[in-house]
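Example 3.
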Amino acid sequence: MKRAWQIMCLAFVAAAIVTLVSSFGYPYKDRLGPGPGFFPVWLSLITGGLSLALFAQVTWSRKAPFSQGSPLPENRAGTIRIFIILAALAGSLAFLDLLGFRITLFLFLIFLPLALGMRNWVIVLIFSLLGSFGVFHVFYYWLKVPLPMGVLGF
Amino acid sequence: METLQYWIQGFTVATQPVNLLYAFIGCILGTLIGVLPGLGPAAGTAILIPITFNLDPIGAIIMLAAIYYGAMYGGTITSVLVNVPGEAASVITCLDGYQMAKQGRAGPALGIAAIGSFIGGTFATMALMVVSLPLANFALRFGPPEVFALLVVGLSLVTGLSGRSLLAALTMTMFGLLLAMIGMDPVRGAPRFTLGIPPLYDGVGFIPVVMGLFGVGEILLSMEAPVLEIIKTKLNDLWPKREEWRVSAGAIGRGTLIGFFLGLIPGIGAIIPTFLAYVVEKKVSKHPEKFGTGVIEGVASPETANNSYANGAMVPLLTLGIPGSPTLAVIMGAFIIHGLTPGPFLFKERPDVVWGLIASLYLGNVMLLVLNLPLVGFWAKLLEIKYQYLYPGILLFCILGAYSLNQSVFDVGVMVVFGVLGYIFRKLDWPLAPTILALILGPMMERALRTALEMSGGDLSILVTRPISAVLLIIAVIVLASPAVRLFGKRAGKDEGG
Amino acid sequence: MKTKISILFIALLLCAVAASGFAAEYPTRPITLMVPWVAGGGTDTGARILAAVAEKKMGQPIVVINKVGAGSQVGCTELARAKADGYYLGCVSLPALNTIILDPERKAAFGIDSFLPIINQVLDPGLIWVKAESPYKTLKDLLEDAKKRPLAVRASTTGILGDDHMAIIMMEEIAGVQFRIVHFEGGAQQLTATLGGQVDVSFDNVGSVMTRIRGGQLRGLAVMDPERSKFLPDVPTTVELGFPTVISSSTRGIMGPKGVPAPVVKKIQEVFLDAMKNPEHMEKMDKAGLAVKPIMGEEYIKYFRNLQERCKSLVDAARKAR
């Protein structure tokens, strides 16, 4: 965990440096006071400072603020499940505009329960139909909330 | 007494069967809209305006107001059950509410939320009837300098959420502030840090970020050990325990006052009252370290505050015609479409509309309570659905909600990215609430400061020469300095003892 | 023989179906009307009223969506990139769109040629107003005070580089005064600030504050239009008061991305013009204080381009003051 905290602190420091450099591209002062670049400059400096302070505290202070656990998922099965969810989410992002809401979520809702271990195809099918086509109908036709249509216009 | 006469007249209007029906439908629709994450009250209300086109003005406005405060409660349900706040007002409720749900205590959490909301809302409505105009005029003295100072106080309250590491909390706050810099700056209206991506011109939306950090992140986290997540709720566990009632009473009282008075100040948004109420509650509590693990006051307090705020925000709307939030602006738009302009004019010309609405607010609060208390058991049982269906279902609504904000897949992408970040931060035990707070308050602060400088012609001293803002800034300094004082105090004590 | 006839019959039937498919009249599915402003505001209110009336004659639902952000830049970017088939339209506000294009710092992803103005709905004249308790009873009072105290009288707008901002700059140039300009985001903030005494005078449009002026909460000093507003017959125009060039207004109309086919444009104009003249539409718009002024086709396109020219110098002046 200590290593994880250190890495995160350094990541923040890096992000702060990048932001600081880009902030120089915006006017610092303005006729009336702080320009668009003013706050980003100071915020990135403070962020960098705080992250370095935290890094120092984690590395060298006797009283460590972090817990004893591990920053990684507890077991392999858990890691796999997390990746399944992420894969499904990534897929939905990729296909939402291409295939439209109904088809994308239909696939999403079939994939997830099955990948997570459900075996009853009938229930999965009903679930995904209700969740994709059913929900679409309620929202698009009844509530008039625009939802993505795919290239097939569907 | 004129007010009494108006009050009676108002009740006569509000209790007409058709108006009662509209209020009832509004409560149900509002709760449903609030339950759907991402489809916040503003968007939901806008969708429903066309429905109300065909109703008479009083009925339409009663229904819209019912939808508005119904949605406040709906947002609570998702915050407690699945850690996905429907909108800004429900974010703080996640902190203790969701923890309670994980311990099988979703019932008491939702129950106390319903009761607290009822008490807060009712008090606010009664106060509205009695004190409207002078209070509203006082609140008008909150110009940009005062709003800036108040926001600084709000941000300084972050120190109350620090958990195990103050430095980590402060870093997360900075993270939120940096995220808030993305988008059009308030100075020149030119894009900043947008990497040329048009959807970012308006900033990285707060709702996709919070849905990602809190909701998706939580789902990823629970994927590690989901078998343990089947939460059985016993029926007699649906009600808060006796000591919980006792501590909640104080929380509800404090939350009501904080929410109402902040509701009078237009434009500060619902997160400040809920956040302030929570931090105050933590500070007066005998066991502050338990906050965040599932204490009932941690739910009672923000929930009461948010309904009290919602009803309190009606004061500037009805007395001066100033909508305090985007949702109220939508309701005001509905007023206008029906040919009514809220404000002192309306009080004189159409007291039946105004007092009818006020009476209906009171009745609506009762209706919400009656509707929602029995449903608490139902909502709690929902958590028993197998996780292989429950979580995909929740994700479905998150995707829907995020997309519906701007009809853009980009927002869904933001949500997913922040979901991953949320998971990482949770594993590291770095607090997420400060980031959200900073993300909401940051842009408001920069704009308020900028406008204050425009008013003073570039003179920063306007912040301290005006009495209200000066006082607020002093409070902020005190709040920020207090952890440092405690630290020094401890060290000094240690030296003496050691 | 029978088989040949039936085949021929089926073939003819298929041809007829295909032909009717191609000749299918616009619209064959719902139309999206995108409003790049917040729900409940002036533009949004007008658009929703119009959509509700027009969809009856259009034969298909007209779904109003809001794509808010960056003073309509976010929504207009979407509009410029939308497919030019007539199913995605925008309710665009001018001169907001013009100033976005003219200000290089806004880095607009579109230009004046990216849009096709189809038909205008509202022309909301600019209005200079103060709260009822203000010491300024006439425009003359305001300008005298502004001359006496340069850069001290606080004048507010509802957005940087919006029509209000342009109007203030015009007034400054003609009357030889300098205001301290304060920008708010939208009418609600401006109203709060003015009532609270945070600013001294406000520039906005008739529609936003008309009912409050009639109710006595606010006072109108001047309407920035050649004619008096029918909603505020007692408020003099800038022309009457000796400033004939200080004319400003905000228009809202339907635009599509460039390249929408002519027959589709014609149908849209037909249906919406009809809707605008419809008594239900007029009544609701009147209640909202929005003056309906249909401008179609070539005239609207010319208006858009002329406005671009007029705004160029004003935007430059505004930018120099930064």
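Chain B has 21 helices and two strands. Residues 182 and 199 of chain B are 11 Å apart (CA to CA).
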